Amino acid sequence: MTTRVTHLADALRLRHYLLTRWPWRALAYLVTTVPIAGVLCVGPLAVAAPLLAAVNGVRRDTNPVSLPLLAFLTLGALLVVAAAPLVSFPVAALERWRLGIVDGRPMPARGWPGLAARYTTATGWREAGHAFLLAGVVPLVHWVVLLAILVDLTLVAGPWLADDGNQVVLGWTSVDTPAQAVPYALLGVALLPALWYGLGVLAAAQGAATRWLLDPPADSAQLREVTRSRARLVDAYEAERRRIERDMHDAAQPRLTSLTLQLGLARLDVAEDSPAARPLAVAHDQARDLMTLIRQIVHGIRPQSLTELGLAGAVREIAEESTVPVDVRAAVDGPLPEIVETTAYYVVSECLSNVARHAGATRAGVRLARTGGRLTVEITDDGHGGADPARGTGLTGLADRVAAIGGRMLLASPTGGPTLVRVELPCRP
């Protein structure tokens, strides 16, 4: 997770939101909505106004619905629905561009798919639904908000409006003198920040609805199948990894150990001044080095400390070997799935290695916590920050490893530090 705020929904969580540029962007988004919604509401209003009049007449038994009126309403409604997929196409293109005012996340543009596709695809009707949202719901909400703003401004201006001795209505009450209006004016001033914040909430909600309708998520069935296939690949990889580990540990490593012992015994039987002594010594040393290398490879596949000590103990062992002092806090109760333990171990190992090599930190911390069905791993340091996954493959590889088992990795590393890496892994039994 980067520290840069890219859309209004996140900006609303900032403590100093009212002092940022985001309230003004929210206001610009709402104001530019007005002419678009005003044009779009003409068609539905042409049908809704006579319909409401007819319903009101029937309710009062003064004006029964005539056949021409019924035909007009039916034909008008059909024309509005039929035109919606066509009218909504340019509106959707404009809205995708305009959404950038409050949401900087990219939204793919869509070209003209053909006339038939506008009536036969879900995209066409979702865009039509967005047009009806702008034509019907948005104007009503904007009118309510505008009324609230006018009431609040009336409260603030109450002392000046009552200055000439005339009775002034301030929302739910009336006043005759400026002194009576002062408490209401103070209330109006106190409500201004809430209204300013409320405009941001309204703009964020409208932007979220726009993104949901114009940029629909991937097909849920297809997404579930992709998730299942990824889980199957991870399980297959883990099974193959365990097989390789067993083969190297149970077959290759004992045979190499035996070879090293045989070469050592042969060195004892060969005189030092023999022509074969030197090559035999070199072969013996290479066999020992190769045995050490295989142990390291086996350790890299599945660290022995992870098997013997568990996740908390293995992390403490990594911390003790780090060149930077590391404080470890672990609250992990009960067994964890093997893939979760392995992933968390390598996340801590890679992050502490990055701290030692790149962060310039004097201290680091690791926190392990299991809450419900989720394991949280946090690695912090007091270094100079500025960690960027785009500048290397380490963090990107960790993110891919975490995502492969359904977890997520968040990064906060502003320039000047500190750096926080947070990993959340599902660990349901």
UniProtKB/TrEMBL annotation:
GO terms for cellular component: membrane. Residues 341-427 form the Histidine kinase/HSP90-like ATPase domain. GO terms for molecular function: ATP binding; phosphorelay sensor kinase activity; protein dimerization activity. Pfam families: HATPase_c, HisKA_3, Sensor. It comes from the Bacteria. Residues 240-306 form the Signal transduction histidine kinase subgroup 3 dimerisation and phosphoacceptor domain. Residues 69-214 form the Putative sensor domain. Its EC number is 2.7.13.3. The chain crosses the membrane at residues 26-49, 69-89, 132-161, 181-205. InterPro entries: HATPase_C_sf, HATPase_dom, Put_sensor_dom, Sensor_HK_TwoCompSys, Sig_transdc_His_kin_sub3_dim/P. This is histidine kinase. Keywords: ATP-binding, Kinase, Membrane, Nucleotide-binding, Phosphoprotein, Transferase, Transmembrane, Transmembrane helix, Two-component regulatory system. It catalyses: ATP + protein L-histidine = ADP + protein N-phospho-L-histidine.
